[in-house]
Amino acid sequence: MSVLETVRYRLKPDATPEAAIKAWEKSQSFARAQDGFLSRKLAVTGEGDWLDLVEWRDMTCAKAAGAAFNPANFPELMDLVTVLDESSMVMSHYEVKGETG
């Protein structure tokens, strides 16, 4: 079964939600280019907690994509790094055990 990757974070104080959404959209090309990428969604709470939810084919692909995440090699990631507060970031991986459609 697939793997769900969750990345929870808050924005830097000077970042706007609009800039965060644009940065996330720009970073889509990186995600789509990674082996095993299946889907990605962005969500935010009313309190300003953001969630980037990515589905990967398997754990190997999820871990490889994480290892490849480097704005120096993929400039399309730079805007994302600029808006998110890295000190608040928490990444988790979950192996899917059930699914309905």
From TrEMBL:
It comes from the Bacteria. The lineage of its organism: Bacteria, Pseudomonadati, Pseudomonadota, Alphaproteobacteria, Rhodobacterales. This is ABM domain-containing protein. It comes from Pelagimonas phthalicica.
